[in-house]
Amino acid sequence: MQQKLWAVLFGGVLAAAAGLFVVAPFIEGWWLPKNLCSFGPEVDHLFYLILAFTGFFYLLTEGIMVYAMWKYVARPGEKSAYTHGSHKLEMLWTVVPALILLFIAFAQVSAWSDIKYQSRMPAPDQVFELTARQFEWRFRYPTAEQNALMLKGWEKGKETDEAAAWQREPHADDIHLVNEVHTWKGPDKDHPTRVRFYLKSRDVIHSFFLPNMRIKQDALPGKVIPVWFDSGFADGNCHYDEKANTWVVDPDKVSQSELACAELCGWGHYKMRGIVYVHENKADYEKWLAHASAEEHRTKP
Amino acid sequence: MSSADHAHIATTHEHHELGFLRKYIFSEDHKIIGIQFMFSGIIMFFLGGLLALGVRTQLGWPHAEIPLLGQWLWPGNAGHRMPPEFYNMLFSMHASVMIFLVIIPLLTGAFGNFTIPLMIGAKDMAFPKLNMMSYWFMWPAFATLLASFFVDGGAAAAGWTSYPTLADVEFAAPNSGWGQRLWLIGLISIGVSSMAGSVNYITTIINMRAPGMTLFRMPMTIWAMFITAILQAMALPVLTVALILQLLDKTIGTCFFLPNWAPGQGGVSIGNYQTPPGGGQPLLWQHLFWFYSHPAVYIMILPAMGMVSDIIATFARKPIFGYRPMVYSLAGIAGLGFIVWGHHMFQSGMDPRLGTGFMIATIMIALPSAVKVFNWLGTLWGSNIHYTTPMLNALAFVSMFVIGGLSGIFMAATPVDIAIHDTYFIVGHLHYVLFMSSIFGIFAAIYYWFPKMFGRMMNDTWGKVHFVLTFLFSNGVFFPMHITGSRLHPRRYFDPTQYRFLDEVQGLNTFMSICAICLGLVQLIFLVNFAYSLFRGPKGGLNPWHSNTLEWTAPSPPPHGNFETPPVVYRGPYEYGSPESDKDYLPQTEPPRPGAAPATHAH
């Protein structure tokens, strides 16, 4: 009887582990951050799909194991069942998992290509350039007019020559900012503001990571990597603060508006924090843009 | 070793008694070399553990003064706090030590060396001198990696993956100067060591099996060591080349991994420093590195799988379920292991279309792993489980490997990986494979073969105390990482409290750190048990576990040359509970009863 306690120990620990996954989604701040991007639900659904399959096989295999540990404690004088295996069982537990794994694998393909394939990237509403360096994110925004110029004739998967040229050669009236992503809320859910940016690195490898947008992309020195996301489920999160003469993010929205670095880049890796500003609409964004431009070029707005 | 055993060696074997230096230090005996690997591995295990505790201390209490050590190490720092570059060094060296100086040397160096000749019935390895060299090439690595803590800037701090340009450019980090160079030199030396070992293992297993020891009568341990050695021999040269290229970048000014800032322009600028224009590729390093280091992940688990299979069959008193599928799945993991390295690079800027291919291969590698788990469960079903310390550790291996295997599928799925790449989810996953599986496998193997290695038994009660506490605390450290990982807590962060979205999981970080400190402390139980049993443990006799494999027919400890009479093998290694025998085991060397049908099992 005492020997059966081993099954209890294993069962207890394994059940506690499973239990943690059951309660965590209900505890504030212990689960996936609130999703704000229109491709986020696809990513999250695939996460839950894998969680469902792995959860099932976890309970199945660990359950069988704990049961066997409980049931087959050594009985003195007895021999164990003498068998070297079963061809049928081997076939069963090879073919069934193989089919499930293939299903899981192919279920991923479309989401991945939609998010990352350059040929699938939708025509954007906003373009900027982002250059990472130790230990900050340097943004270069085009003026509203330049932005419009670059978007004209942009088809899915095919950037315009204007945009490619702007990416190579900075314009004198570009707006340069550090650690601030600015975008705006689309007119409705079907028309989110699609952001397309050119990701570069000046020194070492960094990784652009917006937890709430489910987007992550390494920045490679020597390469220009196109990245896109949108803020389809985000509400406006910032307003103009007269006293500070700048835009500030609402305090209760800060925790869902953070930009992080996800690739070790040196001692200040943990400090490469940025903030995503989602303006109420395009007009608000352009108001901010004009303000930022005036600040940068030291003329009165 | 008692003096009686010395006398025994001298009388039964023709070769003369060796001096202490030749016998224990510059030994050509595979068992002594294995034990040397084991001792240095255990010492490094405690060093690697201390580094991990430094990491956990910072993560658990990011703003606290480090007691005692803080005043001594950083007298100038406000509040004697740990500097961030020191933290980076801690986790980089923790991983480097654990992977290259603990797990690989313990699994292949210690147990590969000890078990291969004994379990196939050979007198020694095919190339004893090469074997000695393989151990002694570990020492330059010990020297350089330990010395690197004391050089200007400190030891390597660019992660154990040492991605350029951070690791490649001296000015990118204080630790990317001599610390990184010594790291590279150390790893090259370990590569030579592993290469010498793997060539030896392959040759020995192919050429030196005892009469009757057909390939499909080999114990799973030997199959695992064989397949691991092939993996190592084929993948390691690539890492060695990559290490040499990075070392050239860092010494004579080549630009293998240093890109131009833009086509036709100069190199990258780091701070005020400009690298020379060269047109190299930082991604090239990642491809070369992972071409070895992904197979290395299997090098760090396959031998444990093999040993655990033998230990489970022994203490379940039942033949291993599906011996051939077990062998094929090992080979399947190893084969697929060569075409999955790109899954470390899904978000790296590699062409995402490659990611799709690597994803499918990676998800399919779960299949042979699943087959192994099902067969272990099949072995337990209808068995007679004896809960000894090695068996408990082996069972922990199986149950924890299930978690590590399943959690891997999340990262293998490219879209999900976008979210959880480089978060605590992967840290949890990799520790379930490398700590909770490999280390439990290593503990199982140490408790299991200790009586053969030293002729004495380890204390079973204290072994169980050590097991229970390790099992509880290690789950306490590593399981909550899946939760902080689901919160998308980035890894390698000196101070997670910088981010609002991580506010709520900081409590979990503290909890994990407390468990980690307890986990570190309970390893002292193992250390004391090990050291005490070495000298005072009760004698184990020839075959304390009533096991079938050949090593248990040799004296404990076996003399130089191993067997008094060369063994002859009549059957496979898993005839437990066979009706052919009155006992519940039937050693491989026991001749069949007259008239009994020879045991053939063609599954």
Could you explain how this protein is built, in words?
The complex is a heterodimer of chains A (301) and B (603). In chain A, strands 3-2-1-5-8 form a 5-stranded mixed beta sheet. A 5-stranded mixed beta sheet of chain A has the order 4-12-11-6-7. In chain A, strands 9-10 form a two-stranded antiparallel ribbon. By secondary structure, chain A is an alpha+beta fold. Chain A has 2 domains: 99 residues, no CATH class; 175 residues, Immunoglobulin-like, CATH 2.60.40. Chain A is elongated, with a radius of gyration of 26 Å. Chain B has a single domain, classed as Up-down Bundle (Cytochrome C Oxidase, Chain A), CATH 1.20.210. In chain B, a hairpin with a 2-residue loop joins strand 1 and strand 2. At the A-B interface, helix 1, helix 2, helix 3, strand 7 and strand 11 of A face helix 5, strand 1, helix 12, helix 13 and helix 14 of B.
CATH architecture of chain B: Up-down Bundle
**Largest interface between protein chains, with number of residues from each side:** A-B, 107 and 118 residues
How many domains would you count in the coordinates of chain B? 1
What is the CA-CA span between the terminal residues of chain A?
Answer: 83 Å
**Got a strand count of chain B?**
2
- How many helices of chain B does DSSP assign? 20
Tell me the name of the CATH homologous superfamily of the largest domain in chain A: Cupredoxins -  blue copper proteins
Q: What fraction of the residues of chain A are assigned to beta strands by DSSP?
A: 15-25%
Average pLDDT reading of chain A: 94
The first-level CATH class of chain B is given as Mainly Alpha
- Identify low-pLDDT runs of chain A: none
Adjacency order of strands in the biggest sheet of chain B? 1-2
Number of helical stretches of at least 4 residues of chain A: 6
Which strand order does the major sheet of chain A show?
Answer: 3-2-1-5-8
Number of domains of chain A: 2
Query: In total, how many beta strands of chain A?
Result: 12
CATH class of the largest domain in chain A: Mainly Beta
Summarize the amount of helix of chain A as a percent range: 25-40%
